[in-house]
Each structure stands twice: as C-alpha cells, then as structure tokens.
C-alpha cells in the first residue's frame, strides 16, 4: 500500500487532473487524478495516458538496488500471459497448476537436502514472496512454542525471536503484526552480519526460533548457520529447551546449492526446521513468488492449516492470501525444468564473475573500500574512504543522471556511521554494463571532486563574524546548506497552479 496525498496548487481548490496525453485525437477534456471519471474513454486513449506516465519510471534493467528478476525468456513470458487469468487458489478447477506447485516444492526441498523418504512428499507452500513465507514460518514457530508451553503449564504470552540487526524489514513486520518481541544482535564496524555467539547468548525460554540470514541484504554475506546450529544445540542440552532455527534464504537459497554445495546451512543441520526462498530473486522469476519449506510435517502445526470445500473439493490451505495468480508458479516450474541444476549453476557463476569485475573496477578508483565478501550473494557493497568532500548519497543521486539506480544507505545499529553504496548483480547485468557503470562512477567522482574543490575555495574567502568579534570560516557543508536553503526559498516563493 502506498499512502499518498492528493495535492493541488497553492491558493486553489481545483481538482487535480491528469493531462499526460498530448494532442490526443480521442480525448479533449482532462481526466481527474483521484476520482473515477464520470464517462468512459476509448481504450487507445486509456493506454496512451498510462503509457505516457510510465515512461517516467526508471528502467528496471538499470535498477541495481533490486534483487528481483527483471528479465525472462520469451517462452516463459508467453506462459505467464497464457495463465494470467487463473486463480491459483481454485485447486479443483486448475489441478495441473496445483501439481506444478507441488513439484516445485519438492524440487526445492531436495535442493535444500530435506530428509524426505522415497514414499514421502515435501512439506511446503508457494507464497507471493519471502515476506509472506516468513510470516507463515514465524506463525508455525509461535504456535509450536505456545503449544509446548501450555503442555508444561508455563505462560506463553511473551514470545521472542533472535535475529541480527541486518534482517530485512519483513522480520520487523512479523514481530509487530503478530506480537512477537524481536531481539536483535547489533552489528559492529567491519562485521555486518549476526554473530552466532551473541545470538545464542540472547536466547531464553521464550525464544520461538533464531533466524539466520543466507545472504544479507546489506552486504550479501552468508551468516554462519553451522556454527549457530552447534552453539544452539549445546545450549538446548544445558537448559532443556528446544529452540529451533529458521533460515531466511530469500537471496542465497538459489545460490548456495549451486556455488557452495559443501556449505552446511540447510536441512543437513538438525535444528533447521524451515527455510524460505524468493523465487523472484535468484530463482529467476518475475516478482510475485516465494517459497517456504518445512523439515517435516511435525514442524507445521495442523491447526494452522485450513480446509475449504466451497470451490469444489476439500482443499488444504496455509496462506495469508487467498486469491492469487498462477502465472509466477508456472514460471518457476518453467525455470526449474528449463535450466536444471547445470543451467542455474552457470548463471550463478556468471553473476559472480561479473560481480568480481565490478568489484575490481570500483576498487581501482582508489576512493572506495569494498565491504561485501567474495563468498555470498553476487553484489558489491562499498563505502567512501573519505567522505569529507562528498558522500555516497551524492554519488547515488548523480548516478541517476545516467539512468542508474544505485541505493545509498547507512548500516543498522551499532554501525550507523557507515554509509554504503550497493550494486546487485542479476542475470541481465552484463560485463559491458559493469564496465559502463564504473566509467560513469569515475565521471561523477571527478565532477564531485571539482565541485568540492571549488566549494573549498569559496569557503576560504567566506567568513562569519560572531557577536564577540571572532571571525570563523564556514565549512563546505555549511555553504552547501546555505545554497540549498536559498534555492528552496526561491522555489517556495514561486506561485504556480495545479500540475
């Protein structure tokens, strides 16, 4: 949901209107923006109006902030369009789609080394993304913990989850929406993932699970799930508790099995009870699909599963959404059988090679410190060695002039003073794009350096006299703020009508 405010021009009560179409042969009257128009318009005009506005959006291929897939093969695009009118929840009407979902669940479960016998099927479900998958996994942990506490005759009103401060915001949403305390292991400069030792120290009898991240959003680094499992196993033995682990593999779940098969992070570790992964990230599907897999049926409480029959037959469902499209699930199945293990491995290796080229190019400028690791998600996170003349936020803003969308952000507690740029390498980010990005960064560095030098010269001739007669020079930042304030004041004074 986007919270928006309909604004009109100053000093007028006029209704905001949409006037994006130009010299239209179909429509002459402007359309209201925030109210449904009273009359119909031709389909060509509706298309033109919307298409014109969308031209001002960024180019998804140059959106290096996002992990989400922005390109698929034309054959898969056809499958998506051919199934866009199928409501996935109607399993009786679309049994083949349901079967494809079940195949995906089992393929991913085997990829994550779930202990499935020959005559068993995996326990999991498709979701609209890892956010919903995490909500479902968290609810399962909370209900399991509550049931166990009730059997023991102990209070069950203060559940908590232990995570690192680097978790994605969906964990904070789960904690707030479902009344679970989120206990975060704070970060430190140079160590931007959860410390397993500190995490286990924070575990208590009210901990429903410890959440480990396989592919931190901040730096792409994999957390040490194996060490966490070993330390937590010892603590469970000492205390008699049964605290499990959930692995948030939203980004890394479709990377680690292909690039680091020897890395133990999945169901090979006994305390890992559930894993989520985003099909629309390195699962290589357009936005709108995620997966959550449980170790066994015992790890998903039966009372959370609803059984409905008003769509035809008895249908079990465990989801926060009811109706949803089938397209992305079909697209996931296409990718799994189209690429196979070999295909995914080749793509991930290519992504890592392109990330290495970009890392070398950024490091060669001499102005950045690389914070991301070579092992992990294929991304490059880097910070300025010297932020006294300009910041990563200046670089991020200037990159938009060239079409690039590169996020700049500060690290969570206790590393807020570290500001970072991050470039995510997806399948459609080529080596030539990597080289072009480095060249554009070099251009911006030269421009910002020149501007900073000019500002220093101006500041050397600019002084402010205090009440006691002491003369002090203004800093570059103070001068920049004065200039911005001047132009903002000029803009605010300008009277314009509604746009």
Automatic annotation (TrEMBL):
Highest taxon, organism lineage: Eukaryota
UniProt modified residues of type N6-(pyridoxal phosphate)lysine: 281
GO MF terms held by the record: glutamate decarboxylase activity
CDD domains, alphabetized: DOPA_deC_like
Keywords, alphabetical: Decarboxylase, Lyase, Pyridoxal phosphate
Enzyme Commission number(s) from the entry: 4.1.1.15
Cofactor(s) needed: pyridoxal 5'-phosphate
Reactions catalysed, as given in the entry: L-glutamate + H(+) = 4-aminobutanoate + CO2
Pfam families per UniProt: Pyridoxal_deC (PF00282)
The family this protein is said to belong to: Belongs to the group II decarboxylase family.
UniProt-listed NCBIfam families: Glu-decarb-GAD
PANTHER family, per database record: GLUTAMATE DECARBOXYLASE
This protein's name: Glutamate decarboxylase
Source taxonomy: Eukaryota, Viridiplantae, Streptophyta, Embryophyta, Tracheophyta
